[in-house]
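Retro notes (design track)

What went well: tokenization of the new backbones is finally stable.
What didn't: we kept losing track of which sequence belonged to which structure.
Fix going forward: every design gets posted as structure first, then sequence, in one message. First example under the new rule, 437 residues:
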């Protein structure tokens, strides 16, 4: 079959395109953004063509799928419609793939990418697996039995998925432009739970997770004593986090090169699920010690001036607070400068005070202006990054094309956080602080 993926450089669409190609389909795509993005690597490895204009020929037998970042009035989507091509929603095609394997759906407001990556890493190191992880990373082989998928609640995407097993890491208010209320979010997770064929591993420390209604077997994990899977932190060091998992007849200590209590919970969910799938604690310990997280998750670069530059995908107050906590665990006592690039006007408006509360925990704060590819500023009058900087003493607005206001030195941590593209910002920071040839 032939697939034409619009918005192909988006993390989800890029991953879907890679998987469709791996399954033997002919795949190409379109994107408005000509600048190179990290999501292109998998596309380039598979020789998937990416178009930037509307001059190329459209085949009548193409199946078109599109990113939700593209409006229905987008010229290329209109051209496909006018040419009579079949158009299917992105999540419907993903849902079709979930039916082909023993799918492990990893869901939750936060921690999906890391938990998916941990499960993938354990299974790859042991029995093999396919995966669809929202960091532009996907692979499918018909020889693999399992399929690990990061399942996004945005726009209720995952209601079309049919997993064999499900993980729910947490539930909070998020993407409120897509939901009527927190209860609506909880009910939507209930739909995913009802689609699950076997069992669910869910964070029992999250009050909202406990509210999900399902008749499937639920194994709750967490630090609290009322969980089926009891997690105990043993040591949060500057090189690792060590913890114990007590579940059924397993009582074992594990170590991961990740930082923060939230990462311990993510790893514990992966351990519990894989243990239920028959993976031995010994094999899991070996795999976890060599784990490397997905792109843009505490991704570090040491600049020539000695500054530790960290790029992270955090974009919700809870995620930002967790990332800052992780940085402080790994680099205790260091001066931390944070640059946050808000991604949507609605999230900025909904969580202004939350952003203020978490960002003021670092030594210096900068924000760029809001970068939204699916919302219009005119629909949110008065909403801007200054709503956040005005609430933090000494916080400033920075232009990502001019980073001359930055003052970071050897040993300082410069933490860049956003789910939007920060490639130009990082490039300009590196150009300023790295030696020229």
């Amino acid at each position: 079959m032939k697939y034409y993926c619009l918005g192909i450089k988006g993390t989800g669409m890029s991953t879907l395109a890679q998987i469709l190609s791996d399954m033997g389909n002919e795949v190409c795509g379109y994107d408005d953004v000509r600048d190179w993005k990290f999501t292109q690597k998998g596309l380039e490895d598979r020789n998937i063509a990416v178009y930037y204009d509307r001059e190329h020929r459209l085949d009548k037998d193409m199946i078109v799928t599109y990113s939700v970042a593209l409006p229905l009035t987008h010229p290329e989507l209109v051209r496909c419609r006018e040419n009579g091509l079949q158009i299917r929603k992105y999540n419907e095609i993903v849902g079709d793939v979930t039916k082909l394997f023993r799918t492990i759906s990893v869901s939750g407001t936060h921690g999906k990418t890391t938990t998916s990556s941990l499960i993938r890493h354990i299974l790859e190191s042991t029995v093999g697996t396919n995966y669809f992880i929202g960091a532009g990373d996907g692979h499918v082989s018909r020889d693999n039995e399992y399929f690990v998928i990061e399942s996004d609640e945005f726009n209720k995407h995952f209601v079309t998925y049919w997993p064999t097993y499900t993980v729910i890491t947490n539930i909070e208010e998020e993407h409120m432009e897509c939901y009527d209320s927190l209860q609506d979010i909880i009910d939507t997770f209930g739909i995913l739970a009802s689609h699950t064929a076997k069992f669910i591993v869910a964070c029992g420390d999250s009050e909202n997770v406990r509210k999900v209604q399902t008749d499937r077997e639920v194994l709750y994990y967490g630090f609290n004593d009322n969980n089926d899977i009891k997690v105990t932190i043993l040591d949060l060091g500057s090189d690792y986090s060590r913890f114990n998992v007590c579940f059924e007849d397993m009582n074992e200590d594990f170590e991961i090169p990740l930082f923060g209590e939230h990462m311990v919970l993510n790893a514990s969910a992966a351990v519990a699920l894989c243990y239920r799938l028959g993976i031995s604690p010994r094999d899991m310990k070996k795999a976890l010690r060599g784990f490397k997280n997905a792109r843009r998750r505490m991704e570090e670069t040491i600049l020539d001036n000695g500054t530790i530059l960290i790029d992270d995908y955090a974009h919700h107050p809870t995620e930002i607070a967790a990332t800052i906590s992780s940085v402080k665990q790994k680099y205790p006592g260091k001066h931390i400068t944070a640059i946050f690039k808000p991604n949507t006007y609605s999230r900025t408006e909904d969580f202004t005070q939350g952003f203020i509360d978490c960002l003021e925990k670092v030594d210096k704060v900068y924000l760029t202006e809001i970068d939204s590819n699916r919302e219009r500023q005119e629909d949110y009058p008065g909403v801007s990054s200054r709503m956040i900087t005005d609430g933090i003493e000494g916080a400033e607005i920075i232009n990502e094309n001019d980073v001359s206001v930055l003052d970071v030195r050897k040993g300082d941590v410069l933490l860049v956080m956003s789910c939007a593209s920060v490639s130009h910002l990082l490039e300009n920071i590196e150009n300023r602080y790295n030696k020229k040839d």
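Added context from the reviewer: The chain has a mean pLDDT of 94.
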